[in-house]
Amino acid sequence: MAKNTDQHLKEIPIFSELTKKELKTVSRLMTEITAKEGKYLTREGDLGREFMVISEGTAVVRRNGRKIATLGPGDFLGELAVLSGAPRTADVIASSDMVLETLNRREFMSLLDESASIAKKVLIGAVKRLHELDSSKTS
């Protein structure tokens, strides 16, 4: 990530409650990747192996072939599949060239194992996300 990685992570809802020290731990584990426009970041029904944070670019989210959202810098994806081991809930396709920060399942789980405080905060963030997803289905 860029110079101000810790502050960038703090702006991401799932990490917003972490302390500076916890944010440094997370940023050390993250790996920057790039994706060209048109690349599938996730495929609906596939096993989730990584959590991703968008640093640059945009992506389209499709469920059952229907566009349900557009994601951009600061948005994240994959936390629910990585936490639960459940299949991906949607296709996410790069709609521009992108830069993403990723944590694979092993790194994500080791982060949670390493710190009960981080685990609690990340799980609360994930539950809030699930609630938002559930609310959007019923509205």
Characterization of this structure:
With 139 residues, the protein is α+β, with helices and mostly antiparallel strands. The chain has one domain: Jelly Rolls (Sandwich), CATH 2.60.120. It is built from 5 helices and 8 strands. The protein has helices spanning 5-10, 20-29, 79-84, 105-114, 116-138, and strands spanning 31-35, 40-42, 50-56, 59-63, 66-71, 76-77, 91-94, 98-104. It has a 4-stranded antiparallel β-sheet with strand order 1-8-3-6. It has a 4-stranded antiparallel β-sheet with strand order 2-7-4-5, with no helix packed on it. The mean pLDDT is 84.
Would you spell out the secondary-structure blueprint of this structure?
Blueprint (H helix, E strand, L loop, with lengths): L4 H6 L9 H10 L1 E5 L4 E3 L7 E7 L2 E5 L2 E6 L4 E2 L1 H6 L6 E4 L3 E7 H10 L1 H23 L1
Antiparallel strand pairs: 1-8, 2-7, 3-6, 3-8, 4-5, 4-7
Q: What are the defining features of this structure?
A:
139 residues; alpha+beta; Jelly Rolls; four-stranded antiparallel sheet; 5 helices; 8 strands
Order of helices and strands: HHEEEEEEHEEHH
Biggest sheet features = 4 strands, antiparallel
The helix fraction, in percent, is 25-40%
Structural class estimated from helices and strands: alpha+beta
Distance between the termini: 36 Å
Looking at the overall shape, the CATH architecture is Sandwich
Radius of gyration: 14 Å
What's the CATH first level? Mainly Beta
What is the CATH homologous superfamily assignment?
Jelly Rolls
Question: What is the name of the CATH topology?
Answer: Jelly Rolls
Shape: globular
Structure annotation, total helices: 5
